[in-house]
Design a protein that fits this description.
The complex is a heterotrimer. Chain B is built from twelve helices and 18 strands. By secondary structure, chain B is of the alpha/beta class. In chain B, strands 1, 2, 8, 9, 10, 11, 17 and 18 form an eight-stranded mixed β-sheet that branches. In chain B, strands 5-6-4-13-14-15-12-16 form an eight-stranded mixed β-sheet. A two-stranded antiparallel ribbon of chain B has the order 3-7. Classes of the chains: A mainly beta, B alpha/beta, C alpha+beta. Chains A and C meet through helix 1 of A and helix 16 and helix 20 of C. Bound molecules: flavin-adenine dinucleotide, FE2/S2 (inorganic) cluster and zinc ion (ZN). Zinc ion binds next to loops of chain A.
């Protein structure tokens, strides 16, 4: 079992209860390939803090947003909804 | 015998960093070192520096489970990895360093008709390319791996398997050190503990490589930084089609010989083999979220242990000794990216995911050719970035997500 | 030798136990460990070392080394000194190829020491190439410690308990006890764990004690698995106090691994816990008070203490231990020879910081004390007692780099090996560790980590601080796979009709997480029933999502590539669900039950992914739509075959006449008295109805339909019949006929896409692919021979695709199937070959459209 995710609906719950739904707000695409190709397949793959979406699969069954540092898996906060606060 | 008892230095240490090199390779993993070796050996390019932020092999190259195989699903993948295996076959002699490669075979269990279909497909594709790979029935599975629980009275009974006799395991560190020694002897400079902290560009060229030990210029810059590739590319304003995940593995205490083959079960999400020393080495698929944090998870050892004991009831009391993890750079189609970039002197090799160790020799040969002659070898052509504009993937998800 | 009864001993002299060791019976008391009992019975050689087969014995008596590894009841590599005697154990020595005393492999030690230096194997067996596989096989046979599979493993408890703790204190020494008592007094819920059995009877007010219980690691989110005899407590703690103390560090000298050389704490445990006299003549060399304490205990135990040297502040003496018959017989100190059978030696104590480091705490070298100590703690983790470095110090002396001076006894790595590795260029601790395997044995670096870093520091001239430590990794103690894994737990989902199916004779298969009937004894008869009479299939595994709200129509137009807004109430339409990059994820049906109400069905395995994607789309666009997963609430059956209408008419109030209930119509009504949603669809190629109803009524509806169909010879249908029947129609099954790259364009479903309706999932990617045209096509084919699924399609001798499904048609007797072929040959009648294996090839021809009833008259009639 891994780190804890602060679900705004359910409280601190272990990560395996959630499904990862990608990060929010990558850099604008298009310096390597055309915009569409990068938009479809490329990502920032940030080493650091990012906003990301998780679905609380074995819990409230809602999408939430958290801020996680991908270098440490430190999750600083969780929000309702799917948009970066 | 003399060399046996009195081995000399493996490589020079404490070299000063020059101001300029013909080629700078970022990343002292197996791929960077192999490329450096073949640059020197095949192309006579020796003004090369390998910059490694930690010790050599500190990335995936020192953490993988050293499965070397070519029974991939796509013709592009299978022929590429087979070419690597052919080089591996003679690598101990080539490097004069025993990489302890042993062809004990890889056995991928099929617990369902779906899995049998995938096995059939892989066998078909492999055989067409002359790769020894075939589907075997339960009897042969039993004969080869008597320790397996092949009873029907389990959750997922075994129906058959894909056997790949040419699949091997080896001592990963030996490959890293062998290439490093070979490159060093030919004049390549290896600089451990030299992190690249920035790349300056001007026009369509990388003009400066920044490190805490000083700035460097280079004719050509290669990024061979696997899980860290996105960070390096970001320094020059590029992004890649990959995410970094963590893959874990563990090793048990050594036991008397039990397994010959590497046994893979995609259904149970695990693979296991026994080293020459007798340890069982087991692993699984990557954690399902991107991260650069390499701490092991408890869920991982729990599920792998449970399934291992289900597959091999006799090892119930064998103890786990050590767990570890490493970063993996995974692309949407589980195939690598080896290509030039919009920057004329910047080349990227990335997307090696959980399977890049086996590719090192062929990557070294083809990438050094690309750097030295600007020619794209037919073997790596399919792995260019164009496949993302063409939406034409080389999909190895079915053959690489689980069995590395 | 057992001493007279002593205060504080943990053995119960009135409770005698026995076990066997290598076939001989051994007497023990309750409270003994296997190791203590053996020692009390005079056993001195416990095992032999990994590489050189050197004799090894009890050296720490505390589970910190590898000197006492044995097989206990089939469990290999048990640390005998910490395994409590239950009575009746079958204990065997391991790593031997003879007896412990006379292991013929011990010649390795005599001859091989000098010829198998570190890194030896990397230079061996390179040429001729053909020799290496033989050498490798020989090496395999020589190595490996424990045997497995010879004795059936004893039945074992292997359970998991999920716990929480306000404060988890690890280590029940003085500081651990104090911390536990303090937090308990504050009203916190405290759990105290210690791996030592002697703390089992510890009682502190308000504190739960788990002993013996080993904290295996500190994982993210302050999760600590505590292993207590087959029971794994997974403790999620608000606060962790690490009070793991410090560990006696061995002294490095020639022969430091001989049986008879032990640490002061081993003496303390042998005498204090088990009342055993450790030896007859002893020399004590120590660098802290532990030496004096050991000397005092030894005297109490009747051991003659010949000499005690406090190594602090004196010039480090040159020490050499000598052996007779593999056992310590004398020690030479600065050339002075002293006969003895016990040498208590310690260089001091090093904090046992591993769990702290795992929690993320940094570690620094304290040059003054010569130890690594925890530095920056992380939130929620505290350190108490000597693990902080308080009162711990280790001598710098560590004299000598002899060829039998073992820095790492587990792996038989000598000081000389390390110096040699540095000479070869392995100057960093991590890389030297990999080259020499130092610290990689079962002691987990407890006794060798500090010494190896310091040896490297000396050899390289780089300070310990710069060299740093190796990464601390779980588990803290080697732990059996079976205990880590716990009970077998492979949940399989069952439908509400599982029992009804079983009664009907179902043979089950796994489809994803579901157990589904593959057939009920005779798949061919089931297929025939559908073509000629009627069949009933449990399709409750379908995912069912109820989509409703003012924006429901717009929402469905957004997530599906075809147009849903034109779907009329009481009609049903096929739909494909794609990824953003235009690849197929799943398929299903969209059923319009009202202006703003839809039921969307998905495949059995796809529902979670589709549900989550639906909710995300709704949330992103802030649509007024509710998506409810009703998969479990509703059960479903499909009733198919020419007699289906007649059967249905007997149990429903819905008008089922062809004109009243047309193909792709949807009706609501009662079926066998249960309220149901009925739709006419034709996945199986004949007249067919899919009926959804509350799961509570599932068995009732099933039985009613079976009864109504009895006179028409109704049969229950399994997955095999489904696969065969739908293949006749050329219908794909997502996951069997599609892979992670399949697009609708490749499956001939391009015309379904409503390009002009604006944004929908995957529209940009599909648009681009559509312009360029697909490379491959999923087509039907007929063939001469039945290929296995997965068989390669050959075009011009090259691999051009693969067979995804194939059967011999029950209708035509022909081999029919679906396959990927290059788009260029994707038209009716194109010929290609199938690679049938062993060089055999078979002919095949593309067939576009359904094989059976291509105009769909039967399902519409
Ligand atoms: C647990 C595990 C099991 C695996 N099993 C297998 C297997 O069985 N078979 C197989 O073929 N593959 C396997 N792999 C994958 C394989 O290990 C990798 O694909 C392979 O090692 C990649 O080699 P590399 O040289 O490209 O990268 P790496 O070895 O990761 O090297 C990249 C190097 O770049 C350095 N670096 C990063 N950033 C910088 C910077 N800014 N400046 C300087 N240096 C930098 C890093 O320190 C690192 O040493 C496994 C991986 C893991 C983690
Ligand atoms: S004596 Fe048993 S582990 Fe040290
Ligand atoms: Zn929640």
């Amino acid at each position: 079992m891994s780190f804890l995710i602060p679900c705004p609906h359910c409280g601190n719950r272990p990560q395996p209860e959630f499904a990862y739904g990608g990060n929010i707000g990558d850099d604008p695409p298009g310096s390597m390939l055309d915009v569409l190709s990068e938009d479809l397949y490329f990502n920032d793959n940030t080493a650091g803090e990012q906003f990301e979406r998780w679905f609380h699969r074995f819990g409230c069954e809602r999408w939430i947003v958290i801020r996680r540092d991908t270098r440490t898996n430190q999750v600083s906060e969780g929000w309702e909804g799917v948009d970066a606060p | 015998m003399k060399d046996l008892l009195r081995p000399g230095r493996m490589w020079r240490t404490g070299l000063p960093l020059k101001k300029r090199y013909d080629v700078v390779i970022i990343g002292g993993g197996v791929q960077g070192l192999a490329t450096a070796y073949y640059l020197a050996k095949n192309h006579g390019i020796t003004d090369v520096a390998v910059l490694e932020k930690s010790y050599i092999g500190s990335g995936g190259s020192g953490r993988n489970t050293a499965i070397v195989r070519s029974n991939y699903r796509t013709p592009e993948g299978a022929s590429f990895y087979q070419a690597s295996l052919d080089l591996y076959d003679d690598l101990s002699a080539e490097l004069d360093f025993n990489i302890m490669l042993t062809k004990r075979g890889v056995l991928s269990l099929a617990h369902s008709e779906r899995a049998l279909a995938t096995a059939t497909e892989r066998a078909s594709v492999n055989q067409k390319l002359g790769i020894d790979s075939r589907v075997i029935g339960l009897d042969e599975v039993r004969r080869r791996v008597p320790a397996l629980n092949t009873s029907r009275d389990v959750t997922w009974p075994i129906l058959g398997a894909l056997i790949h006799p040419g699949g091997a395991i080896l001592r990963h560190d030996a490959v890293v050190w062998g290439y490093a020694r070979g490159a060093d002897r030919r004049g390549v400079e290896i600089h451990p503990f030299t992190e690249v902290t920035g790349l300056d560009t001007s026009g369509d060229r990388v003009t400066k490589i920044r490190t805490p030990r000083g700035d460097i210029e280079a004719g050509t810059v290669l990024s061979a930084t696997a899980g860290w590739s996105s960070g390096i590319c970001k320094m020059v304003g590029l992004r890649l089609p990959m995410k970094t995940y963590v893959l874990q593995a563990f090793v048990t205490e050594p036991i008397r010989p039990l397994l010959v083959e590497t046994v893979v079960s995609t259904q149970m999400r695990l693979y296991v083999h026994q080293t020459t020393r007798g340890e069982l080495v087991a692993g699984a698929e990557a954690e399902p979220y991107p991260t650069y944090q390499g701490r092991s998870t408890l869920t991982f050892i729990e599920s792998i242990s449970r399934y291992l004991v289900e597959l091999f009831p006799a090892i119930r009391d064998v103890s786990i000794l050590r767990t570890w993890s490493g970063l993996c750079d995974v692309t949407p189609d589980y195939s690598p990216i080896i290509d030039r970039t919009p920057l004329a002197n910047f080349i990227v090799s990335a997307g090696w995911g959980t399977y890049g160790f086996k590719a090192a020799p062929i990557v070294g040969v083809t990438l050094s050719k690309l750097i030295a002659t600007n020619q794209v070898d037919p073997l790596i052509k399919p792995f260019g970035l164009h496949r993302f504009t063409d939406d034409r993937f080389i999909s190895e998800a079915a053959s690489a997500a689980m069995s590395h | 030798m057992r001493l007279p009864r002593r205060d504080g001993e943990t053995i119960d002299r009135d409770d005698r136990r026995t076990f066997t060791f290598d076939g001989k019976e051994v007497q023990a008391y309750a409270g003994d460990t296997i190791g203590s009992a053996l020692y009390a019975n005079g056993q001195r050689i416990f095992t032999r070392s990994f590489k050189y087969h050197r004799p090894r014995g009890l050296s720490c008596a505390a589970g910190n080394c590898a000197g006492c590894l044995m097989e206990v009841d089939g469990e290999p590599s048990v640390k005998a000194c910490t395994r409590t005697v239950q009575g009746g154990e079958v204990v065997r020595s391991q790593t031997i190829s003879g007896s412990l005393e006379r292991d013929p492999m011990r010649v390795v030690d005599h001859v091989a020491g000098p010829v198998t230096p570190v890194g030896f194997y990397y230079r061996l067996g390179i040429r001729p190439k053909a020799a290496w596989p033989h050498i490798e096989r020989m090496l395999r046979r020589m190595t490996g410690l424990g045997r497995v599979g010879e004795a059936p493993p004893k039945p074992h408890r292997a359970d998991v308990e999920h716990r929480t703790a306000g404060v988890l204190v690890i280590g029940a020494g003085r500081s651990g006890q104090e911390a536990a008592a303090r937090y308990a007094a504050e009203g916190r819920q405290v759990i105290l764990v210690d791996e030592r059995a002697e703390y089992a009877s510890l009682a502190i007010d308000g504190v739960e004690v788990i002993a013996p219980g080993t904290a295996l690691g500190v994982y993210e989110g302050r999760l600590v698995p505590v292993h207590a005899d087959g029971l794994m407590h997974r403790i999620r703690a608000e606060k962790i106090v690490v009070a793991t103390g410090s560990i006696d560090q061995p002294l490095l000298f020639e022969g430091n691994d001989l049986p008879g050389v032990m640490t002061p704490s081993a003496v303390r445990r042998l005498v204090g816990l088990w009342s055993i006299r450790p030896g007859t003549r002893a020399v004590v060399l120590a660098a802290d008070e532990a030496g004096d304490e050991a000397a005092r205990l030894l005297r109490e135990a009747g051991t003659q203490v010949v000499e005690t040297i406090d190594l602090r502040g004196v010039r480090p003496p040159k020490v050499k231990a000598a052996a007779r018959h593999g056992l310590l017989a004398a020690v030479e100190i600065d050339g002075r020879k002293i006969d003895c059978d016990l040498l208590v030696a310690s260089a001091g104590r090093q904090p046992a910081y591993s769990l702290l480091a795992q929690s993320g705490c940094s570690v620094r070298f304290d040059a003054e004390k010569g130890i690594f100590a925890p530095d920056q703690l992380v939130d929620g983790v505290e350190a108490a007692g000597s693990v902080t470095g308080e009162g711990a110090a280790v001598l710098a002396a560590a004299e000598g780099a002899g060829k039998r001076t073992f820095v790492c006894p587990c792996e038989d790595v000598t000081a000389k090996d390390l110096v040699r590795a540095v000479g070869e260029g392995f100057e960093d601790i991590e890389i030297a560790k990999r080259y020499t395997t130092v610290t990689m044995g079962p002691c987990q670096g407890r006794l060798c980590h500090l010494h190896s870093v310091r040896a490297l520091a000396r050899a390289t001239g780089v300070g310990e601080a710069a060299l740093g430590t190796t990464t601390a990794r779980p588990p803290w103690q080697p732990t059996p796979l079976g205990d880590v894994g716990g009970r077998k737990l492979n949940p399989g989902k069952r439908t509400a009709l599982h029992d009804a199916n079983r009664r009907a004779g179902a043979q089950y298969v796994w489809t994803g997480v579901w157990r589904r009937p593959d057939h009920y004894g005779d798949a061919a008869a089931e297929i025939k029933a559908v073509h000629e009479g009627v069949g009933l299939m449990d399709v409750s595994t379908l995912g069912k999502l109820y989509v409703s709200g003012p924006d429901a129509e717009a929402f469905l137009d957004g997530v599906f590539p075809n147009r849903i807004s034109t779907l009329k109430v009481d009609r049903v339409r096929y739909g494909i669900f794609n990824t953003d990059s235009g690849r197929i994820i799943d398929d299903g049906t969209i059923i319009r039950v009202g202006e703003r109400d839809f039921l969307v069905t998905t495949s059995s395995g796809g529902v979670d992914q589709v549900y989550e994607a639906f909710l995300l789309w709704v949330a992103e666009r802030k649509l007024a739509v509710d998506v409810v997963n009703v998969s479990g609430a509703l059960s479903a059956v499909s009733l198919s075959g020419p007699k289906a209408r007649e059967v249905l008419s007997r149990v429903t109030d819905v008008d089922v006449a062809n004109e009243a209930f047309k193909f792709l119509d949807v009706r609501q009504g009662a079926v066998a008295g249960a309220s149901a949603l009925l739709m006419r669809i034709g996945f199986l190629g004949e007249l067919g109805y899919e009926i959804h109803f509350p799961s509570t009524a599932a068995e009732h509806v099933w039985e009613a339909l079976m009864k109504a169909g009895a006179e028409f010879g109704i049969l229950p249908l399994g997955v095999e019949a489904l696969k065969a029947l739908r293949l006749e129609k050329g219908h794909i099954i997502v996951g069997i006929d599609t892979d992670s790259e399949t697009t609708m364009l490749e499956c001939g479903m391009g015309p379904m896409i409503a390009w002009d309706k604006g944004e929908f999932v995957g529209n940009e990617a599909l648009g681009r692919m559509n312009e360029r045209g697909a490379d491959r096509a999923l087509v039907g084919f007929t063939a001469d021979d039945l290929p296995n699924e997965g068989t390669a399609v050959l075009v011009g001798g090259e691999v051009g695709g693969r067979v995804t499904s194939a059967r011999r048609s029950a209708v035509s007797g022909q081999v029919i199937g679906l396959a990927y072929v290059p788009a260029a040959i994707g038209s009716e009648g194109s010929a290609f070959e199938l690679d049938l294996g062993e060089g055999r090839r078979g002919g095949a021809k593309v067939h576009i459209g359904a094989f059976y009833d291509p105009d769909g008259e039967r399902m519409r009639g």
